[in-house]
Amino acid sequence: MLGMFKSKVSLLAAAAILVLPAASVFGADSGAPDSQVGVDTLWVTIAAMLVFFMQAGFGMVEAGFIRAKNSSNILMKNFIDYCTAIVMFFLVGYAIMFGTGNSFLGWSGFGLSGVADIIPNTHVQKYAFWFFQAAFCGAAASIVAGGMAERMKFAAYIIYTVAISAVVYPIVGHWVWNEGGWLAQMGFKDFAGSTVVHITGGWAAFIGTIILGPRIGKYKNGGLPKAIAGHNIPIACLGVFILWFGWFGFNPGSTVAVGDGSAFSRVAMNTNLAAAVGALAAMAVVWIFFGKPDLSMTMNGALAGLVAVTGPCAYIEPWAAIAIGAVAGVLVVIGVSLLDRLHVDDPVGAVAVHGFNGIWGTLAIGVFGQKALGVPLDGLVYGGGWSQLGVQALGMLTVAAFSIVCMGAVFLAIKHTMGLRVSRAEEFRGLDIGQHGMESYAGFQIFANE
Question: Which residues pair with 125 in a beta bridge?
Fold first, then answer.
């Protein structure tokens, strides 16, 4: 008996050693400022890790939706665009986005120099906040890889990544998420990035895809589109589930505070509902009009719902998330069909998912947003009139135009200097061999005869 008692005492002592430090971090003294900073900083750091994991999702989706001979190339682009974006956002991007300056851009905090230890209006330590925002920057850069897949030079892609992550994305972020930004001062809202991340990345992909031109053999017989099947739909499906999972850092993490849990839990629920309904809506539309419940379009429907709800997720009730997801699922199917008619070759649907639904998510704030949940004016369905919707439309148009003009200039400059597109022979052979001297699948080298 004495031995058992001593054993239990030892276990209790060990548990106390483990629990007491944890209690100091997780708020045993809930009134202490250090406790609140610790909890909120931990929450934002975990959310940033989830957003980082989305890079794996982007890589799997894009690799699965393209041909085997180009899969290492697209994965390399996803790998390097994140690395490049992180460095550029540390050196330059954060200062432009969150630094003090004017209503157009910030001009302080390069390399985090002089940035306050605790970010103003939050209880989050500066390194955690930077980590979270840098992961967003990497996500915005990754969107373009899918739209320009299978024919863009790798070196050209690196130059593009530097431009968008160091300058273009941070300027848009300053307008919207810096309290001194001109759109923020007008009352424009974008909770987690339908505008800042998805319109910026989606419409950069649009103009880049147009300048780059379609893949060889995509449009034949008088301009009719030819389906170029992806080589691994199961991998793409895994990527969609990874992105869906990572979005629970992307959206709920943007609360940058734990509080009583009501805010981030509502955001998580709205995020989940919109994704699920987006998938169902896309499946239904493609089934009705094309005769089969296509998996790839259903997966893009889920992503479309996630993109669309990203901006309004904190400002809406669950029923509105369902409506937003339903429209997004329909819109992505229409968007893919429209782009094919326009001969805009987007191998993974990046423009339809991010560009079109970034616009819808931005406008949805002016339709379904509630003043009680943080929007300056009630949305249209709550009797608030057209004012908030008008501000949202102005911001949407400005950001889309800015992204198209700036990135169009970058892509044209690259095209007329180092070259944007690989040679015809290299495109036939595959970018894995031509750009990287390797195969994704050993012994499975493909020489196309298209």
Answer: 118
3-23: burial string, b at 16+ Cβ within 10 Å, e else: eeeeeeeeeeeeeeeeeeeee
C-alpha to C-alpha distances, 180 to 2, 90, 101, 128, 211, nearest whole angstrom: 68, 20, 8, 22, 34
Residues 6+ apart with CB under 8 A from 8: none
Cβ-based neighbours of 425, under 8 Å, separated by 6 or more: none
- Classify residue 182 by its DSSP letter: H
Q: Is the sign of the CA dihedral 437, 441, 442, 447 positive or negative? A: negative
Above pLDDT 70, what percent of the chain? 91
The per-residue pLDDT for 33 is 62
d(CA 273, CA 91): 37
Apex 188 CA angle, 187 and 194, nearest 5: 155
**Unique residue bearing structure tokens 């609360």:** 255
Summarised one tens digit per residue, pLDDT across range 144-172 is 999 999 999 999 999 999 999 999 999 99
3-state secondary structure of 342: coil
Residue 272 has pLDDT above 90, yes or no: yes
Mean pLDDT within 45-62: 97
pTM of the predicted model over 0.70: yes
* Residue 337 contacts residue 285 (beta carbons within 8 Å): no
By C-alpha distance, which of 354, 226, 240, 340 is closest to 296? 240
At CA 282, angle to CA 280 and CA 286, rounded to 5? 120
Q: Is 322 a residue whose pLDDT tops 90?
A: yes
Q: What is the DSSP letter of 68?
A: G
The residues, any chain, with a CB within 8 Å of residue 27's CB and separated by 6 or more, are: 35, 36, 38, 39
